[in-house]
Amino acid sequence: MLACFDLTGKVAFVTGASLGLGRAFARALARSGASLVLVARRRKLLEDAAEEMRSYGADCICACADIGDETQVEAAVEAAVNRFGRIDILVNNAAAGCIEKPIEENTAEEWDRMVHTNLVGPFIVAKAVGRQMICQRSGKIINIASIGGTVFNRINWPGAYETSKEGIKTLTKCLDANWNRYNINVNAIEPGYFMTDANKRFYDEHPELLDTVGQHIPCGRDGEPDELGPLCVLLASDGASYMHGSIVRVDGGRTYW
């Protein structure tokens, strides 16, 4: 039974792979046998992540790219195909964080930047990788959404981030509707609150809010990034062969109260 979750021989292209959830996704894929193309903007952090992945025995390359730049993304995809000959898995993870001010103070330029990074960027990456998957007649795409579009965090100012992340769910269904005929599965993970390095820094600066946030999560705590890894492996594997356009929520129960 467990053989269908083995990713040996598969090639995974992971954006935002140097930190946070992206690095946790890459770690899970590496430990499941996949070769990796790690994509992010900062070379040093990417190289640190690559060293970790190689410690699990993964064949791994780095590709510096801004996901909002089509030329850079296409170069990263070309490098992946030149090195490995194919791309079997895309984890479309890279994103920008919230705009920390009331929505009436947001500028159009700030919204443009957020939507371009969090919604247009994943489309650019999916399109570039998707062309390769169409040629192969196979592939698994995992978009990373957020519960932010469903339930708001009272300690933040909801706005462009939440809007863009809600759009990821519709993008997921649109991509799958277009590409399922090519044996490509497009699904999404919808995380709740996870204790990434960025969130740890936030709680270090605002320790009084840690308990406040926990009180709004039925299981009483933020998730750990590695708790998302097994789901990523499932969606990347043959075990998800009949999952198309699914949005899988992992939030400790946050959205039901």
Q: How many runs of DSSP E, i.e. beta strands?
A: 7
Beta-strand residue fraction: 5-15%
Count of separate DSSP helical elements: 8
Residue runs with pLDDT of under 50 for 5 or more positions: none
Strand line-up of the largest beta sheet: 3-2-1-4-5-6-7
Distance between the termini: 36 Å
Rg from C-alpha positions?
A: 18 Å
Instruction: Kindly name the structural category.
Output: alpha/beta
Identify the overall geometry.
Answer: globular
Q: Please state the oligomeric state of the protein chains shown.
A: single chain
Q: Sheet bearing the most strands, described?
A: 7 strands, parallel
Overall mean confidence score, pLDDT: 94
SSE order, one letter for each helix or strand: EHEHEHEHEHEHHHE
Percentage of residues in helical conformation: 40-55%
